[in-house]
Specification:
Blueprint: E1 2-9, E2 26-33, H1 35-38, E3 41-43, E4 48-49, E5 56-65, E6 77-83, E7 86-90, E8 94-97, E9 103-108, E10 113-121, E11 125-135, E12 148-150, E13 154-156, H2 161-165, E14 185-187, E15 195-201, E16 204-209, E17 219-223, E18 235-247, E19 250-265, E20 272-274, H3 276-279, E21 280-281, E22 284-285, H4 287-291, E23 297-300, E24 303-304, H5 321-328, E25 330-334, E26 340-344, E27 361-362, E28 365-373, E29 377-382, H6 418-428
Parallel strand pairs: 17-19, 20-23, 26-29
Antiparallel strand pairs: 1-2, 2-5, 3-4, 5-10, 6-9, 6-11, 7-10, 8-9, 11-12, 11-13, 14-18, 15-16, 16-17, 18-19, 21-22, 23-28, 24-27, 25-26, 28-29
Length: 432
């Protein structure tokens, strides 16, 4: 696939430029996808590429010009970016990481010519490669003309919920605490998918893509800040998008755009029963396996509330389960596989006192699966009602309709907003 060359003017729209203005003034850029990438179409006959978290490569060339539209022999550094998407490699490039942990890729122009093989992934919609003359790369480029050129767009399918969350290609420590699209503001693929609202809470809702079986990254939490309006359990969603973030390790979208399709309902997926092999590995939680079930409805068949789960003296280590129960509302169960998971039921089954049942076997327990990276890797079952604990209405007081906010919070403190505010600022600065 050949991409038409485009150029953008740096430093304003007048190519003449003020006397003494830094050069170059603009770049003329073109790109050609390699053969395999150009044939990787998701919609045959449309030229739209399939979404992919694996790398695809484009050969990009650029030429620099001065304010009179004459070739300019620029020998400085050029930054390479892909929007939207993630760069995996750039041949011959120098890579740096800024103070916010973001990677930057720079290639050096020779006599006004730039050439690079760019491998990128997790792109969607109209994707373009940008080249910008940044001068010196000290400080990630700060003294160049910032003349910019951009390729014609590469059309890529929107991602499904599962594709947005599939961490199998992430080459990082603890991939289950990240996402291929972290930091992006994305519209998810819903038009030809059966995406259904599976549960509600006072701060958002869960959705699942029925086209991908539970256990395949098909569940997602949508954080709405307040009680979600205009959706109910079973509604089919025709629009779903927002800022992708990892809130203490749990994938969610915030500042969401969503819309239920009028008159269209679907049956939410049933709870997936998790066996010992899925739950536990090496005396700890099986993080990689559980990540694929995150934000899905799951059932743990049996566990034991530890007999040491009880009131502790003042000043006792705050990492103990009882201290964290008082602070966050979560209580532990030990599983036959040798690990622990945690249950949050204080607002949806307030009549159940786990401390009173310390040492007892309990199960089955059903809830929405969530994760928190705080004091270790902890997986939470967020129960929706008393029935999720195997209780009858007579055994519990009346509870709210829906599970609590899906992450443990400090009792009496407002829900933290800094992560969401950071995402809002980040997406506001996107180049596309």
């Amino acid at each position: 696939m050949n991409l038409i060359a485009l150029f953008l003017v740096g430093c304003g729209g007048d190519t003449s430029g003020p006397p003494g203005a830094p050069e170059p003034t603009f770049l003329q850029v073109s790109g050609t996808l390699d053969g395999a990438a150009s044939e990787d179409t998701g919609d045959e006959g449309t030229g739209v590429l399939a979404y992919s978290n694996e790398g695809r490569t484009i050969h990009v060339t650029g030429a620099t010009f001065d304010r009179n539209a004459e070739p300019y022999e620029y020998d400085g550094w050029v930054e390479v970016t892909v929007r939207p998407g993630t760069i995996k490699t750039v041949t011959g490039a120098t890579q740096t990481t800024d103070a916010w942990g973001e990677d930057h890729w720079f290639v050096q122009a020779e006599d006004g010519q730039v050439s690079a093989q760019v491998t990128f992934s997790s792109s969607f919609g109209d994707t373009r490669v940008w080249l910008a003359a940044v001068g010196d790369i000290e400080g990630n480029g700060s003294d160049g003309s910032f003349a910019t050129g951009v390729t014609e767009s590469v059309p890529v399918q929107l991602p499904t919920i599962a594709q947005m969350q599939d961490v199998s290609e992430l080459e990082i420590d603890y991939p289950f605490t990240s996402s291929p699209m972290i930091g992006e503001f994305v519209t998810l693929r819903t038009e030809d998918r059966d995406v259904v609202v599976t549960s509600l809470t006072t701060k958002g809702f869960w959705a699942s893509d029925l086209g991908d079986a539970p256990g395949n990254y098909s569940g997602l939490f949508v954080y709405t800040f307040n009680k979600p309006e205009g959706v109910a359990v079973g509604d089919r969603l025709g629009l779903l998008g927002g800022g992708v973030q990892e809130y203490v390790g749990a994938t969610q979208i915030s500042f969401p755009l969503y819309e239920a399709m009028e008159g269209q309902t679907l049956e939410p997926p049933p709870a997936s029963v998790l066996d010992d092999e899925t739950l536990c590995a090496d005396d700890g939680p099986n993080n990689e396996a559980l990540e694929a079930f995150e934000s899905s409805l799951v059932t743990v068949e049996v566990g034991t509330i530890p007999d040491d789960f009880k009131e502790t003296p003042p000043g006792t280590d705050s990492d103990l389960d009882y201290a964290q129960f008082l602070e966050y509302g979560q209580w532990p169960i030990e599983l036959p596989g040798g690990c622990r998971v945690y249950v949050v039921s204080n607002t949806t089954a307030p009549g159940f006192d786990p401390v009173a049942h310390a040492g007892e076997s309990i199960g089955p327990i059903t809830g929405m699966l969530s994760y928190v990276r705080a004091g270790g890797h902890k997986w939470m079952l967020l129960v929706r009602n008393a029935e999720d604990l195997g209780l009858t209405p007579d055994e519990d007081t009346e509870a709210p309709a829906g599970p609590p906010w899906p992450l443990p919070l400090h009792r009496g403190q407002p829900e933290p907003q800094c992560e969401h505010e950071h995402i809002g600022a980040h997406t506001a600065l996107r180049k596309d």
